[in-house]
């Protein structure tokens, strides 16, 4: 196996001495510096002609820019294999050796150096300074203000900045740098006499240097001032104004704040023009019809541009007299030109309230002149829900028919299963509430109330036969006679039934009960279980007495007084 002889050699040895003859290649020492031309390139290496019989190779990863054949390159000799004549070279290590000396001198003299940001790391960035890789913490970037909040979100890879070296590690050949420290030193000099050059409320020219989420940085006479998005335009859409401020563009701004101790310069753009709200009351008044363009839509309303930096809010409750609007997009769209009416102006809070429905007469103001409570009408079904029917009353007003107002006796039906939109139906108006904008209607009120006749058919004390239709905590419901349903309350049960009536009675079970009362208007039937036995005995007694009477007995019946009692 070939042996590799590695010795330290002073980097000051000249190439002429190293490559005097072909045999001189054998005297190559690690640490020497060579200069040669690239003669070929493999997938992994650049092959360098060293002037002798040996060739050197450099890994392609050591090149920032892809090398080309014929290019002259300078590198450090890392090792030499005598058997193969192969010399391993390193371009990066040579750069680092030379760069380290530059870095040390810069650190000793406290002078700034150029640093190329190579890649992002967890807590900062790796920066190439003269071939030496140094660490730039997020807190030392110095692009987002004193604390560099959000610096980790910056995309600065590939950028070159002047930085100050904070510390060095000679063993690891690395260190820490800071752009912020360099900026602070520069700013200290610039801020020293700022009062003689820039005054509060001055209009100054500057150059846009950087965009952030909250605004833009502008260089004014060597100082980075900040223009917050809230100070860009009087309009609500500040992003549009920010887009017009391209990096490198010259812009005139107003000085809003100067804080030399904090190195803070606040700038304004909209302050160069008058605040449109200062004259809003001279240009607009409540009741004015105004044209505008919808700029933003939310669930609660839409913002409408009225020109000259003014916007009004069109709330969903002000969009229609008769329709409930759940989202502004149901009525208007972004970019739409619309006409509205001003219904409120608050100069102090900078708010203009707009109305769309106010452009038309309120149909609820005249509804009672058009229809009357108790009036029977015909209308088409405009909407169906699980709980009711919306039917047309006028061109703009709908009435509601609750499902329990569809029929008298049958269980409330599902309106969606019984009707369809567009059907014409007859109904009666039973309530008008202009304040709440509601019209209550009923189909059953157009039909005879069967409960009125039911009271004649089933007088108080009548025994009925039915089936249990429901068992609840306070009693049982009993269905009888083709859809009529009554309630037998706990208080009407036998004592032995009350304690465990949920076990005694089950849905569909045949049962007898006594009619206590029938209320035609509320459609409520009260039943009793406890009185069944007495009622049946009473009926039997009456039947017996009637039979005795029909026999025309000549003798006085012993039950004569009892007949009076039970009748």
Keywords:
567 residues, alpha+beta, OB fold (Dihydrolipoamide Acetyltransferase, E2P), 6 domains, 5-stranded mixed β-barrel, 5-stranded antiparallel beta sheet, 38% strand, disordered N terminus, disordered C terminus
Helices and strands in order, then pairings?
Blueprint: H1 15-18, E1 33-41, E2 45-49, E3 55-59, E4 72-81, E5 86-90, H2 91-109, E6 113-120, E7 124-129, E8 132-137, E9 160-169, E10 174-178, H3 179-192, E11 203-212, E12 215-220, E13 223-228, H4 238-244, E14 250-259, E15 264-268, H5 280-283, E16 289-297, E17 301-307, E18 310-315, E19 337-346, E20 351-355, H6 367-370, E21 376-384, E22 388-392, E23 398-402, H7 415-418, E24 424-433, E25 438-442, H8 450-457, E26 463-472, E27 475-480, E28 484-489, H9 495-498, H10 501-504, E29 510-519, E30 524-528, H11 532-550, H12 560-566
Parallel strand pairs: 3-5, 13-15, 18-20, 23-25, 28-30
Antiparallel strand pairs: 1-2, 1-4, 2-3, 4-5, 6-7, 6-9, 7-8, 9-10, 11-12, 11-14, 12-13, 14-15, 16-17, 16-19, 17-18, 19-20, 21-22, 21-24, 22-23, 24-25, 26-27, 26-29, 27-28, 29-30
